[in-house]
Amino acid sequence: MSTIQRGRNSIAQTSRSTADRVRGSGSTATNTVQPPVTGGAAQRGVVVDGFDSRSAQTRAVGGVFTAPAGSKDKVFDGKLVGAGGQTFEPNTPLNQVPAFVPANNPNATATVVYVNGISTNKDGQARELQALANSTGMRAIGVHNATSGMLADVIQAAKDKLNKGKNPAVDSLSDIVYSELKAGRDIHLMGYSHGGLITSRALKDVGNRLRIEDGMSKAQVEQLLSRVNVETFGAAATTYPDGPNYVHYVNNKDAVPVIFGQGSKGWTPGDLFRDAGKGAQVHHFSEKGMFSGAHSLTETYLNHRVPFEEGRAGNF
After folding, report:
1. Domain segments of the chain: what residues?
2. 13-312 sits in which CATH class?
């Protein structure tokens, strides 16, 4: 599957296979795909397709990713994270990834794809995914933004700001959104901190890809992207492409979105360089302080989230 190659003045197409992704991460990890189950065993290891508008179906899980013992978190970069922290190759269909489900509603059907922030390993993202499921009442699947330490993570975020270099999480999310849209399905995304920046970059890639590979006009791209719902929390992204339906949450006491993202409430000169996306809702609030949890997803931001349609209507 081709995608948009970054870091050049002109946009070129390139092929990304699963093997390329693993090589790009510097890992020798293997990909183990479970064989289909039949008969009485068919009730084990099956998942509900939350991205299909048809009646719920069960399918065998495939594309399981198994890392060598003792691997660093970088080996999981761009991998999908499912229930229990199990990981899957990025090209695994979403309907084959068992999602985290709300503790009080294991039969939830709506699904969100979530990208984490910096300094968060796979197990940390798994905890966030369960918290998201419990808080939103939705099934949650992760695209992992791996950590290599604070300094390396900050450098990666700076490159994403400049749309330079390769980021496996960006590539994975871009491919997921493109595939879901081409299949005629809606998709709901959430991004926290650096994960919001990754979401922004991936959506821009999808738009470029639709124009170059599918020959769509700008208006057609925006129309198709309107099938994407996006929520960000303390995100580090300054701009987002038009088309998707956005709700951005910004804590005025959180330095990350105030300095690197959508800024604090009220006009500032920095707003000249900001674009939340056409028709976006940006919800500002003030809570805690920089050293007392202002940037926390689970302890601060999720407490201010409202159901998506209410947020889109400005009812916070």
Report:
1. 13-312
2. alpha beta
